[in-house]
Write a structure and sequence with these properties.
This protein is of the alpha+beta class and about 475 residues long. About 35% of the residues lie in helices and about 20% in strands. It is built from 18 helices and 22 strands. A seven-stranded mixed beta sheet has the order 8-7-18-19-20-17-21.
């Protein structure tokens, strides 16, 4: 009997994790299954992109993942990378928010937007005294009734006030989702905040509850807890390389863009070069809008739902300097910028402060972020203009006058899904419609989580369902 075939379209972390888990299960269970992965680009990894240059380690896309969601860490261990896992550096585990041209430290005890203690609120220079008084009223704001989803912006403004949203919520949320909080779904992104309001009637009250369940829950959906971020000594590209090495029984075809997919007795995958592949199982591990293009010939209703998931474009700019050329002490891991500051960067990570081994001795590596829902016009600039804009912002905020030793621009067009209000209902409809097509799996960061652990979890769950 000829083996059945599974074709995976997309070689980012979702597609790779799916193919790897399926390969593991094939060996464990003795499955007669051929696995072929098609990637349009000339390399694997998608937005995970690590480069080394002149002794600097440059991350294009994500530079870390959360420990609290265990799937990525477990995958690293299965790949033999446990010894390469590394935490953030212990010194200076804090971040900053820009205010009036200065970087103001985020006080400890602040969970994204909600202070756990009154002392945290009192010593918070990011918010004016009227703003602090409004935040202090949060325990007395009645909880919202009903199960209808609402935007994160509406939730924060309703519970903590306008200034808390503008000075704290919006910049921190943009640092994670590059999204407009006025459109971002609370249910899809910060469900624990919603649950705390329902359960305790107040975020502040929920934060003060001493039970472990509550503490873990709010921290999971909150701002940075720096000791819970992990990376790999060689950068996250090491994870992609390890996946490729461990899948010697999977046919990996880079530089193979797919034109479209047809459905007959089996799936028919048509590459732009004119070659075709028949498949019994099809896993599409692409952004939702790209999946919609491929499936247009055979799944019109599903295509409309996939195309309704919006995306934004982002770019990262790595800049290396001599340490002596940077006046700021860099006594933290980076900063975010509120939109009300009317600047042109979303934020900046002090990469060589966050993780060791990112820059040679006597040098520092910074990584600026631009684009997203609130800065689309900046992403549209050409590389030279983008470099100039970022250098101007770093001059204003960090006092850097010198030219960088190196600068590297990484662009990711239409790569960041926007979980707008009602997102989970849309995903449920997509999953229901996809269920009408036997052997079809849709995975990726456009559905139920944008982080690496989220993508690994979805991919491995789908592989186990297939097996």
């Amino acid at each position: 009997m000829n083996p059945t075939r599974c074709v995976v379209i997309g070689g980012g972390i979702s597609g790779l994790s799916f193919a790897h888990r399926l390969s593991e299960l094939r060996r464990e269970r003795g499955l007669s299954l051929e696995i072929v992965l098609l990637e349009a680009a000339g390399r694997l990894g998608g937005v995970i992109e690590t480069r080394r240059r002149d002794g600097f380690l440059l991350e294009g896309g994500p530079d870390a993942f959360l420990v609290e969601r265990p799937e990525a860490m477990a995958l690293c261990r299965r790949l033999g990378l446990a010894g390469d896992l590394m935490e953030t550096q212990e010194t200076c585990r804090r971040s900053f928010v820009a205010r009036n041209g200065h970087l103001v430290p985020v006080p400890s005890g602040l969970d994204l937007i909600a202070p756990g203690r009154l002392s945290t609120l009192v010593r918070m220079p990011l918010v004016s005294w009227p703003g602090k008084l409004r935040m202090a009223c949060e325990p007395f704001i009645p909880p919202r009734r009903g199960d209808q989803d609402e935007s994160v912006g509406h939730f924060v403004r309703r519970r903590l006030g306008r200034e808390a949203l503008e000075r704290l919520g919006q910049p921190m949320i943009s640092g994670i989702y590059t999204a407009d909080p006025e459109r971002l779904s609370l249910e899809a992104t910060f469900p624990r905040f919603r649950e705390m309001e329902r359960r305790y009637g107040s975020l502040s009250r929920g934060l003060r509850v001493g039970i472990r369940e509550s503490a873990q829950a709010i921290q999971q959906a909150s701002g940075p807890r720096y000791s819970l971020f992990l990376s790999l000594q060689g950068g996250l590209g090491t994870l992609v390389e390890a996946l490729g090495r461990r899948m010697s029984d999977v046919e990996l075809r880079c530089g193979t863009p797919v034109s479209h997919v047809e459905r007959g007795v089996r799936w028919r995958v048509v590459a732009t070069a004119g070659t075709t592949l028949e498949a019994d199982w099809l896993c599409v591990a692409l952004p939702a809008h790209q999946a919609a293009v491929l499936l247009r010939p055979c799944a019109q209703d599903l295509v409309r739902q996939l195309a309704a998931v919006p995306y934004e474009s982002v770019a990262t700019i790595n800049l290396a300097f001599r340490r002596s050329d940077v006046p700021h002490p860099l006594d933290g891991f980076g900063f975010v910028v509120p939109a009300v500051e009317r600047r042109r960067v979303v934020g900046c990570t002090f990469s060589s402060q966050k993780f060791s081994g990112r820059a040679p001795a006597g040098s520092v590596l910074l990584r600026a972020f631009v684009g997203g829902a609130l800065h689309r016009e900046v992403f549209e600039l050409d590389d030279h203009a983008l470099e100039r804009v970022v250098r101007e912002e770093l001059r204003d905020l960090l006092g850097i006058q010198a030219a960088p030793r190196l600068i590297s621009v990484h662009r990711y067009p239409q790569a960041m899904p926007q979980y707008h209000v009602g997102h989970l209902e849309r995903v449920a409809a997509i999953e229901a419609e996809a269920g009408r097509f036997p052997g079809l799996f849709l995975i990726g960061n456009g559905f139920r989580g944008i982080g690496i652990p989220d993508c690994v979890r979805q991919a491995e769950t789908a592989a186990e369902r297939l097996a």
